[in-house]
Design a protein that fits this description.
This protein is an alpha+beta fold. The protein contains 4 helices and 10 strands, in the order βαββαββββαββαβ. The strands form 3 sheets. Strands 5, 6, 7, 8, 9 and 10 form a 6-stranded antiparallel sheet that branches. A two-stranded antiparallel ribbon has the order 1-4. The protein has a two-stranded antiparallel ribbon with strand order 2-3. The longest helix is centred in the N-terminal third of the chain and has 14 residues. The chain is flat, with a radius of gyration of 21 Å. The N and C termini lie far apart (about 50 Å).
Amino acid sequence: MFPTDAADYDNLRDALSKLKLNDAALQYEPENSLAMGFGFRCGFLGLLHMDVTQTRLEREYDLDLIATAPSVVYQVKPNNQEAFFLSNPSQLPDPTKREWLAEPYVRMEIITPDDYVGPLMELAQNRRGQYVDMKYLVEGRTTIIYEMPLAEMVTDFYDILKSKSKGYASMEYTLIDYRQNDLVSQHMLTALIRVHAVHIN
């Protein structure tokens, strides 16, 4: 979360510290972005928790905020150096200067009525999920267990899971480890083009 006005950085920090007194699930740490300036990397229980927190910050503390898309922390091993964690892609060494790049994985348990097992397994596999096990709890209800990259889950996975199961499925997950994968950093360049129109009468 970043304040639209850089002068509100201290106000945002104070507001987050006050909210945390009544919300133990809220986590935050300072973050610096080349594009957005100074702000805070925040951790939430989910998208609903994030929306509620942002709304409270804006209404109760009169802040104008920009919330960027959820992201995760990666681990990188530069050549002949110790591995370290990074949350900002700008800190990523060039591919020729690193030995490996690893991402966090979670163990996810999805509890669903039997009717939605197929669509939810397809969803998990499309998000690079690795099937682990399936357990039948009671008649008509099943638990599907997958391991998948955290990055594939933190955006809209829960919303799509609810949509595909008509709201009946639920999930829980635990962080298990970091795994090396063939990951690349993608740079996007944007250009502002100003068009001058000439009208002839």
